[in-house]
Design goal:
With 216 residues, the chain is α+β, with helices and mostly antiparallel strands. Helices cover 19% and strands 39% of the residues. A six-stranded mixed barrel has the order 1-3-2-6-5-4. Strands 10-7-9-12 form a four-stranded mixed beta sheet, with no helix packed on it. A hairpin with a 5-residue loop joins strand 4 and strand 5.
Length: 216
Amino acid sequence: MRKDIMVVAEPRATRGKNAARRLRAGGRIPAVLYGAGRPATPITVDPKQIDRILYSSSGHNTIFDVKVDGQESCPAMIVDWQHHPIHGRLLHVDFERIDMNRKLRVKVPVHIEGEARGVKQQGGLMEVVTREIEVECLPDLIPEHFAVDVRRLLIGQNLRAADVPLGEGIELKSSPDTVICHVIALRTSQVTEVAEAEAGPSEPEVVKKGKAEEKE
């Protein structure tokens, strides 16, 4: 999905770990812009702006404009990124130039809506198996997510990728048989645990000490 966002980038002349550390200390991170039949361009960007895109509702499927000093702006997407494993800071990012007239393959999240009959009426458990599917479409048609209504599902029933309503101009590329979610029956042990939890803690058994001693 295209958003009205402009990422202002600066050309990057130096490479290597030391240069990258200096960039990060100065509030920038190294990045690369490539694709659309043009050479790769080393650049630097503001990591806060990139994090806002990654954590937005459209995430890495967001299409935005990148403006490199001395060049025309172009639409692009985030195709790869690296966060620090401990501190979580963004360390590096790769952008791909996007041709708005050419179809893309992207992975789009699938959201579950409603409460299944198998859960509400039969006491089953809704299990989500796949949280995203791969589709192909023009960049302007990429949705933020797909929604599937699970209210009719009973125990033993499922929804597959072929059941996801995609919309006009969007083609499914994941296997149609990919299971999105299903309703399963709780195991006996789980049912017992739930029943005990609902009943509350049991009263401890009290042994009358006097009578026990008399018997001894």
